[in-house]
Amino acid sequence: MHDHVSTVPVLAGPVLLYLMLYLSVPAVAGFAIMRIITPPPHRKDALLVTGASTTAFLVAMLLVPEIGLPQQVLVLLLATGIAPFALWWRTPHLLIRVTWAAPWLVAAATATAVLRAPYDLPGSFTAALTAVSWLTLCAPRSRPGRVALRLTAGTLGLAVVAVTAQVASAGGWL
Amino acid sequence: MTTHAGAWSASGSLNQRHHKLALNLFMFVVLAHWAEHIVQAVQVFLLEWPRPQAGGVLGLWIPWLVTSEWMHYGYAIIMLVGFFALARGFTGRSKKWWKIALWIQFWHHIEHFLLLLQALTGRNLLGYPQPMSILQLVLPRVELHLFYNLIVFVPMMVAVYFHMRPSREDRAEMRCTCATGAA
Q1: CA distance A81 to chain B (A)
Q2: Does the CB of A64 have a partner CB in chain B at under 8 Å?
């Protein structure tokens, strides 16, 4: 049944997708950069950021012809990125149980983003988005932890903006 | 009308005196859709029809019912709205199973939204030649959506069973006439 030819009466083209990307990235990057000086987010703010991050991730998967990451890894990355949104939305009482994992997931996703940046910009972009999602759950108590958080947040925010700016200036994700 | 902490308040006639009728109508639509999937599976796997030709029952008569992405998404939305609208009438064990089915259907609806978005924009996931959903990256399409409908259908039927044969505590909280048998 679902191998049919998909039909819709009107074709909107990729403009809608680029619009979604350009609207969601500022929310993600803005949160990441502001996290340098602001406290952990409230629930509504976290929902906005994680929702925007997930949206940007999906849009990137639709716009990019090919992402260098294996598909299974990509699905895992997406599921990991969606998890904070689901937690903030439906089970905020469970947040305290998973906050211990947040710094590690942010570190892993950020490392993936950094290591893949030279030759797989879309894959790096999606990893950075996942890292920002989990950043909403990070609230370090120690001074070194706060320093690491600020450095990571700033790096992620700038990276996401830089990739999106490059896409915009190139006229699309070619 | 909350009887104890955690119970959903059952307000409105839809979840009280009309709950049984509404649930019956909802189940009829769900079962009809499920039957279509079963027939298509028979056409593909037993009769070995080419997949584009396997239109179930109604799809053979009205092909756009199968080919239209708006139709697929519209059905997913209708089912989701039905889940949310009728949820307040469920209590106790049946409520728990209904919520499980609801949230699985919510994800199923997201997958269909993604397919619709690809059809509307002409851009497919990761440059594939046809629209793809997320789990379709790891599982084949026909089997995947058959699976989705199955994992929504089963907990829904469990919920309806517990709703029709509630425990004493659940029955005390019910405001509809769905329960069968003596209290």
Answers
A1: 13
A2: yes
Total CB pairs under 8 A between chain A and B: 95
Give A13's DSSP letter.
-
B130 neighbourhood in chain A, CB within 8 Å: 3, 6
Element (H, E) at A107: helix A102-116
ipTM over 0.90: no
Q: Which residues of A touch B125 (CB under 8 A)?
A: 61-62
pLDDT in tens, B59-93: 777 777 777 788 888 888 989 999 999 999 999 99
CB B139 within 8 A of CB B71: no
Of A55, A27, A135, nearest to A88 by C-alpha is A135
Token pair for residue B129?
């030649």
Query: pTM for this structure?
Result: 0.80
Tens-place pLDDT, residues A106-155: 999 999 999 999 888 899 999 999 999 999 999 999 999 999 999 999 99
Look up tokens 């993600």; give the residue: A28
B71 at A interface, C-beta within 8 A: no
